[in-house]
Amino acid sequence: MKAMAEAAKTIAGMFEGKTDYDATAFKLAAETLRTKSGDALIAEFPRGSVGGSTTAKAEIDQFPDEFAALAHHVQTLAAALSRAADTAPDGITDNMRMKPGTGGMGSSLLGKRAGPTKELDPSEIPAEHVFHLMLQDCTSCHAKFRSKPL
Ligand code: HEC
């Protein structure tokens, strides 16, 4: 989790312009997120291990499918970020940027859209948007499965 948090900070810093974009560092961070999420993340919380001194909640054992889905979703998005770095060796490209009206941060303000929610294909949306979706997964998982929300 600590490595994931560091990696997320690295990527956030580059999107926000606080750190110079560096494709290698961006990719390394995305790869850290990819390899530490999914099954690796799930394996950190084996059944019956939660409670006690950690802030991981018993809900992990009660809703394992939901927990796993969040862990795997982070992995899918991190893989897309990693691929985005390959296509942008020299700098953040325009099509990595979130544009007004493409959803992203705004969509949560507008609330849920009517009808069945269509899963966005992370390879077809800007990397910056993918990154924000990933942060939502961190928050969603912590909100439900961690006693101290991040
Ligand atoms: C599938 C669920 C899940 C996802 C997704 C998830 N986390 Fe966590 N995270 C947890 C749990 C559970 C804990 C509590 C761990 C403990 O206390 O043992 C935690 C703890 C943390 C901590 C506290 C330090 C620690 O090691 O306990 C940080 C920082 C953190 N997560 C960052 C992130 C970031 C950044 C992301 C997204 C890139 C993320 N997490 C995604 C479940 C998740």
TrEMBL record:
Taxonomy, superkingdom: Bacteria
Signal sequence, start to end: none
Region (Disordered) location: 91-121
InterPro entries membership: Cyt_c/b562, Cyt_c_II
Protein name in the entry: Cytochrome c556
